[in-house]
Fold each of these.
Amino acid sequence: MGQTLIYGILNGALYGIIALGIALVFGVMRYLNIAHGSLIILGAYGSLILFRLGIDPFASIPVLMIILFLIGTILFKSFFSHFIGFSEGNKIKNSLLIAFGLMLVIDNLATLIWTGDERCITPSYSGISFEVFNVRIPVIGLAGGLLALILIFILHLFFTLTYFGKSVRAVSQDHEAASLMGVDINLTYLISFAISVSLASIPSVLIGLQAFSPTVGIRWFNKGVIVVMLAGLGNIYGVFTAGLFLGILEAISVYFFGAPYREVTGLAVFVLVLILFPQGLFGRKGG
Amino acid sequence: MLSVEGLNVHYEDLQVLWDVSFEVNDREIVALIGSNGAGKTTLLRAITGLLKPTSGYIHYDGITLNNKRPHKIVGLGISMVPEGRRLFPKMTVLENLEMGAFLKDARQEKQETLKLVYEIFPVLKERSQQLAESLSGGEQQMLAIGRALMAKNSFLLLDEMSLGLAPLLVENIFEIVVQINNAGITIFIVEQNVPMTLRVSNRAYVLESGHIVRQGDAKMLLNDSNIKEAYLGMSPV
């Protein structure tokens, strides 16, 4: 059981980081970026390329962060900036539509370039685990979990101590009022979107170290968006905890019901939570 | 300082402001009174750049504001306390005030300005770590005004400050408005509460269904029988 829980926690941390990227964009500008999963897979391929050039996957994270940040700014300016002033409902619909198209383009480009074969990055420490109290913790998983915690901490500092971070929160709560304070909201949207895409760099590497192929992006997006909804749409802080919750829940269901029921249990509980707590577990409108 | 000429504003296909012209000079307190739906808030939104006028001009210190974006207009010297306060609900009192000092110049003087604001509104200092949404109506209004002051701008727009506030609190806030004006800040106040507003203002304009219908010295308007009938609920003598 302990073993299952550990895997649950590590998976949950991964879900949490994916969800963070989705939640950031949704919370600030009410865009649902369904291409987030594909961007993660794109990053995984990037990490693979760098690995073949001799760069350790974890070391490639900062590089990927910068590249993805730039990609994010280009994507926002080219495709996502045009409907930033629309009503909330229309923003969700339009962003979903554009991002879906983007997802198809990325997935198919990846298939063209790298074929549909499943890949995996295999550094020398791939199979190593620690053994603690009769429980085996894979090194990679542990590193991933630690990275997640560090990321959360840095983001927290960013949102509470820096002026730009505070302005992102202000824009997500009342963008007109924020502009009355002198905040350039279009610039804020651009940078928030770019940060969200750059946040995909960590799941990129963690998933790259497992297994990936061009079209699995959407599956990771699905996990992420379930976590976002569990936490409460627009809530950026509860997202990581909700990720852990889903991870542990799936792990427990595997333990009791067996592997085939893993996805089903997660989804069933998701529906149940939304029925009982329509605002999400920690949520209220606005973050 | 602020001069508006022949302003026409449409809200989608509906014309809301018709040929509106007025001016506010340095260090004045000028009022715009009118009933609900007259177009007062629309006018302020046009001045602050949240709305684009269809035609006409808005000049501030010689600069045309018409097509500038809101954050640029704040940078030019105009701050607004919006209708309904529009605080950042999940941010603390202190964070709201800090957001008020977002502009580069204001940020540098943040600590001093904060001290001043806490002197004017001591309750904000007490509640500095509380979330804005947990404050009472009066406290929220004070926070909204304090936040606008943090920008250190010399022109302040006040939109329906007294809405929803108890009379004693309203008196208190109007006194503070006079204080702020004495410190050198020009004020354009938009209100439904006519008597209080006219008492503290130098001059006033009356807006009815999107048209400026009267203007003049505030005390004179206060004693005008038509105004009394229309806005002060008094029957003609």
Amino acid sequence: MIRRWVLYPLLLAALLGPWYFPGNAEACVGRKLILGALQEDRQDMVSKLLSILIHERTGTTVEVEYFASEEKLMEKVRKGKVNLYVGYAGAALEGFGKGPATGSPEEDYRTAKRLFEEELNLIWLKPMGFSGRDQAGRTLGWAGVVVSKEALKKFPALPRLLEKIGSRVVLKDEVLDDLVEKGRDRKPAKVARGFLKQEKLI
Amino acid sequence: MIRVLTGALALLIAFPGPGKAGEGSKTGVSGVIEGRVTWSGEVSVDGVIVVREGGELTVAPGTRVRFVPRDADGDGIGDSELRVEGALVVAGTRQEPVIFTSAAREPAAADWKYVMINHARRADVRYAVFEYAFSGVQIHYTRGTFDSIVSRHNVDGFRFSTAPVTLRDSYLTGNGNGIRFEERGVGAVIENNVIETNRIGIFAVIRCTGLTRFAGNILENNSSYSIKLGDEQAQDLPVEGNWWGTADGAAIESTFFDGRVEPGMGKVLFRPFLDERPVPGEKMAELMERWSNR
């Protein structure tokens, strides 16, 4: 049995600890968003485009977290640990158990948008202009930014900003592939920044 | 029982341990400052120093404060910082400035977090250098005077929000943003500074309504823009009476990211502007000579 003269100081230290030894948990570098991305070249480039666009236009810090599979990414999204990511509508439907996709990318996008909002509290923004494809070259459907409703409460202006990619600047497959290719010779972030600047988005 | 608790408290006070940052603590300090404390000589900060509401930290001329680069949370920003909730007096002189810097052998921006002055009593800072931080200085909800400071090689050189601050005769160079601010109903004074060779000279993020007076500043050679407005900065930003590196109005306009580029955003109102480069005074010339990136 622990003696009182040992126990009480321990209790007191536990009570006073957080006050006495200030940590950096509340340290603030401003508002922050976590953007999830799959570990592949196109997702890497798109995540850089989005994170730079958000940071440059709003001052918000965006941290990109990479995932080996869509399942792992979605697990974090469901837990609210990832605020936004780029999804592919056809693949999303299949992952959601509502596949196979219809063959109409527009139809798939509409269905994914409705289901994700109803059942996962996730909002698909307007399509960005390119389609997902797997390593065998099969298409995974139109790509769009998917944002949690929680994040939209904190950042209500996010859709207007992010939808500039897809409306003002359509990120077609060939445009994205060209950026990815350029990113092999130079730093992808530098390529992404250069593209956004050239398109007068930042 | 009371005797036991009193004894335990006495033990904590008698052996403050590595978490107490007081006078004479010069190596690897972190912790809290509650009374009046003066730093001088070499001070190494490893972790977080908090100057509590009733505390006052004075930094003597010639003091060099080095922040140990440590990034435990892996967010790319060093964790060491000085947080002020009480009062901060940085008493550098022209001959002996105070230097807040990184302890890294090869320092880089964001090695340490910032000097954060938030809801504090006051900040009076003269002849101080802030370098290799995430934000050299961040000040919010606090009255402060910053005179003849240098902020360089930071992500944000000088960042303020909702704070009646005066920044004058200072040199901001080599930062991501020389100045980043949000007025939010409180005006500041930014005058007679040199803001050069940053990526962005001034970033007006949001809710800036012209309460802040920018005058007599030299803004030149900022690589992306001299002024950038944030995505939600819909109001115009008046900044008359500054030098923009040229007397050509159209050329000056091309250095703004504002409503001229992005409809829906406000515009930078820069006319009338100084049509000749002001000659920096002797003090400023000295700062530029010593701390310039060129």
Amino acid sequence: MRSYLPDYELKAPGSLAEALATLSAEPGAWTPLAGGTDLMVLFNAGKLQGRRFLDLSRVYELRGVQDEPSRLTLGALTTYTELLEQRAVHQFFPNLAASARATGALAIQNRGTLGGNIVNASPAADTPPSLLAYGAELELVSVRGSRWISYAAFHQGYKKMDLAPDELVARVRLPKPQGLTFHFYRKVGTRQAQAISKVCLAAFARIEDGAVAEFRVGLGSVAPVPARAPHAEAAVTGARLGALPIAAARQAILADITPIDDIRATAHYRNVVTANVLGQMLGDLEKVRA
Amino acid sequence: MAETITLTLTVNGVLRTVDTHPMARLLDVLREDMGLTGTKEGCGEGECGACTVLLDGRLVNSCLIPALQARDAVVVTVEGLADGDRLSPMQAAFLTHNAAQCGFCTPGMLMAAEDLLRRSPNPDREQVRAGLAGNLCRCTGYSKILDAVQAVARGEGGQP
């Protein structure tokens, strides 16, 4: 059943100060709306929680990209299409480019935003695994000020976040990897476009002197939140190329995930496929010539 | 109770003003307030592409755009493709290649195809498939649609 329009309120602040003041005056009363690619789906189905929405699309301070020598900072309103137009994204963060391409189809990529993908907090979202693998940080802003946190600590439970009712995600910051690096992104879904993932795995490794010096894995659709894989990461970090503990890592990652049965896949399928995709990724990593 | 807004936007080259709810969907503003019923509603959740239009030069699903986000925007719908009675090369190619069966996906397909050729004038088959990946044809007439788009890319649009 379609939502009844007069029940809803939508207003568009013209600046960050105005947006934050509105959120601060009535904490929790307003739900931020950016590209609308998630919220409007719920609205059309009559399932949208909340009645008052804050359209952030005119908040210019949340736009834009800062490309510095050691890091890339993306405004929360950066769309998937805008991500793909950034040279530094392709150069340093190919998993992020792959995940932007894997999100919906073009019309969704033109509207959906990085900040929206993060705050919508779907465990099946496509960009969070890449952000986790790259050690992203988030800037959260409110009238009380600004704070930076590790993205890995942001999701605290299903749709629960380290985000106060008066705060907005303003920017996403990624440290640029240096040296010999390895990137892997795989989304397992029913088709390439418009699919919601059954399993998603993004990995980043830095290789030094023939060994894995740094290794991070981000996972989607296999836990209540987009999650890192600390057991699998510990199994592989420090290992030498040519002697990666693939079987041990495949076993270890099962301790990192808590998949469920749903309409897209069973928990069993997700356990098997997560281990298989990790195995595929480590096989690719073995082939890197250090 | 939310108030209505006066929305001004350019649709197919004409400056239009309508009074609407800020959360009304652009799709409904186009179809119901402006009578531009070429744009279709399929799924209402951004999956099928039947409601595809160009908003400020970007391909979008109009069922996911609240009217307030279209304030002062420049919109092109399927009605904006033809020049009077003269079809655009893409529309003509869809006709000659029998690229429409029931026709419900056709307006969205045309918008995605026009957008693709603006961004990538000589796409190969895979690029055409990727460009139209967000548009579903439940008659499954994809081959003819791909043929039509590639014909236009080769300069074979023309009037039927």
Amino acid sequence: MSRSEAAVNEWYPVAIDELLALGDVQSVTLMEQPLSVIRRENGSVHVQKADGGDCPVCVAYGHVWSSCGKPDHGIFDVPEAAEPGRRMVDCGAVRVKASPLRVVENFLDIAHFPFVHTDILGAEPHTEVEPYKVEIRDTADEVWATKVRFFQPQAAKSADEGQMTDYMYRVPAPCVSILYKTCPPRPGAWDVIALFVRPINEELCDAYAWMALYDDDSAQSDLIQFQQMIFLQDRSVLENQIPRLLPLDPKMEIPTRADTTSVAYRRWLKRRGMTYGAQLVAK
Amino acid sequence: MGLRLYDYVLSGSAYKIRLFLSLLGQEYEGVAVDFYPGEEHKKLAFLAINPAGTLPVLVDGDLTLCDTQAILVYLAAKYDTTESWFPQSDPSLLGRIMQWLAFAGRLTDTVGAARLHDMIGRDLNVEAAREGAHKALRELEAHLTEQGFRNEVFITGKKPTIADIACFPYSALSPDGGIEHDDYPALRKWMVSVRRLPGFIEMPGIHPLHEQHEMAAV
């Protein structure tokens, strides 16, 4: 277990807040441990291990979060969640037969857009990823990629035509990725789309998508299905990646410039000792 | 009033109808139903449209159809000006098409179930679902192999019919449910032929044929 101590003491999503009704008990697995997520009749939320022991609980960004260990920090801050006028959209959990870290890494990649999300988030021949800026912000200990620009035929449900889209990526926790992108109906503002991943084991996870958008027109079901369509296009690719674990050995893969965010993410994981779902030495 | 399709983007059955409408070049209005996570299909507003609570549902004027295969039959009979997708003059062909439409229901029950288990954690016996899926796919594989001997590319002959459209989605989506295509070469070849049809559209889990561009370039 020492190998994954850093992973044990993190917060992970275990349920969608709104879908946990009074009196509900939902069974989930977090890092191979069966947990019960309980909403008591008084509305309070509890997470219990199989032996009845209580796990820490936090409700944030539409989800119930918990941990098998003892996080020494609160959950990461998403200041945009408090901004008035945004619509919060829970898109549900999708199970993926891949390392949770691979799912996060895929979310950080733009080079695959024209090939996997053809004619939506990208299109040939607009395949070039222009240079962008990546940094590990020491104050908050987060990975940030900024000044990312990419041509997109349909950047969002609310987009009518192709446009250059600006992106920022942020990794505030090992199994969380938040992206900020141009908001078609409100130039100057950023739409927020986040992926919260719960490791079931090192090669299987549930990925929850959550959005905080400026969009007063689209139906909720349209917004959810747009996001699910994008994520399910990724899923079948992710399930075919070999090895299933995310390689942290630099000898394993040869990155290109477009992969700078991925390189920073992998280094950051290594530095934190976050090796659950990772392959340390190339086999 | 035009066609209205109550739709869910990840449903293989709803995709069957989207695909066929696209192949026919038929316009329609899509209404997204939040099947997951919202379970809108189990709520009163939707049950008033389809008491069975299943997707897709097609509405054309006063007509409401809730069975996927029945929707294919109706669309072909009404909107296919070529009369090639559901030819009714040849009794043998008509019988065979209907047989494969029924077979498609077995793919939905088995592959579709395994997919819901693997994708959104639906609680069901996934081993039984996968076993049933492989049994059905082996039958389709054997049939398509025989079709190959007759130089017939599609399920009921040289031309595609709604039998192909009914069987394609869950055959193609089976890896989503842990049912790989490795053992089914005739099936893979047939799926490429379906994907090359003019007007073909994809859905998540069914990738575009990028190799087609490369082959065209050679």
